[in-house]
Amino acid sequence: MTVSVTRLVLLLAFVGCLIAAARVEVPAQRAVALAAAVVLLATLYLYQPKPPPLPSQRLPVEDFTVWVETGGALSRLVGLDPQELRQAAQLAREDFRDLSANLELLASRLGILAERGHGEVSGLRELSLEVMRRVEVLSREFPEFPGRALEKKDFLLSTLEHSSTDMGYLSERLSELCRVKPPDVSTLLAQLQRQAEKMKESFRVAKSNLASLLERVKPPAPQPVLLVPLPEVPKPAPPPEEKPEEKPSQVVGQPPEAPPEAAKAGEQKPETPSEEAKPTSGAKPEEKESQQAPAEVALGG
C-alpha cells in the first residue's frame, strides 16, 4: 500500500470516528470514538510528506571536496525578456539558494578547523556567514516589477560587488594560511580557498548578468491621472446696495427747508406765562377799586 493510499484510509477513518462521536448518545461510547479519532490523527501526522533537505544538508560537511554545483550564476537571465521579471525572480532565487548553500558549507568547514585549534579562521567563518545573509536578502528582495527593479538596481548590483570583494579577500587569507600551516591542514585550506575563488567569480558573473537584464528594463508608462471635477460651491449673494437718499430740489429764492426735527420744534406752541404774571381775571370789582383808591388819594394831596 502506497503512502498516499494509507493517508486516505486514515483520513476516512478519522472522519468516521468524528461522525460516530457526534451521533452516539452514550458517554462511554462517545469517549471511545474521540480517543480513536485522536490516535488516527496522530498517525496521519506521521505520514505527512516532509520537505526535501537543503543541498547543504544532503552533503557531508566533513568532506571538503564536495560542493553544490552552481553553474553560471544568473546566466539564465541573459536571454529573458525584460518584462518577464517574475520568471527572472524565480530563476534568481534558485541560483541564490545554491550560492547560499555553498556559503553555509564553507562556514561549517571553517568552524570545524576552528574547533581543531586553528583559531585564525574564526574571522573568515564570520565573514562567510555575513555574505550568506547578504545573499538571502538578495533572494527575498529580488524585484518582480519593472518599477521596483529600477528602484532596487543600485542595491542589487552593489551587494553582488561587495560579496565578490569579500570572497576575494577570504580567498587571499586562506591562500596565506596554506603556506604556514601543516600539510594536512594546508590540504583542507586549499580546498576551501579554491571554492572561495569560485564563489568570487560567481558573484562577479552574477552582477554582470543581472546588470545586462536591468539595463533592458524600461520604466513603466505613467498612468493617466483622472481629474475628478469638484462640486461647484455656490457663491454668496452680494449685499444689497444702499441707495443714497434723494434730496428734493431747492427752488431758487426760497429758504432751505428745515430738518424734520426743527420743523417739529417749530410746530410746538409757546409756553404760556406763569400765573403770577397774568392778571387774575376772576378778581372782584371792589377789590380793584380798593387797589386804585390809594393812588387817587396820593394824587389829590
Assess the beta-strand content as a share of residues.
under 5%
Helicity, as a percent range? 55-70%
| Major sheet | none
Radius of gyration: 57 Å
Distance between the termini: 180 Å
Tell me the total number of β-strands: 0
Q: What does the average pLDDT come to?
A: 76
SSE ordering? HHHHHHHHH
What would you call the structural class? mainly alpha
What shape does the CA trace take?
Answer: flat
Low-confidence stretches: 269-301
Q: Topology, please?
A:
Blueprint: H1 3-23, H2 27-46, H3 55-58, H4 85-115, H5 122-141, H6 146-180, H7 183-215, H8 260-267, H9 285-300
Helix pairs in contact: 1-2, 4-5, 4-7, 5-6, 6-7
Mind explaining what this structure looks like?
The chain has 301 residues and is an all-alpha fold. Among the domains are: 3-46; 55-215. It is 62% helix and 0% strand. The chain is built from nine helices and no strands. Mean pLDDT is 76; it is low at 269-301.
Task: Describe the structure concisely for a colleague.
The protein has 301 residues and is mainly α. It is built from nine helices and no strands. The protein has helices spanning 3-23, 27-46, 55-58, 85-115, 122-141, 146-180, 183-215, 260-267, 285-300.
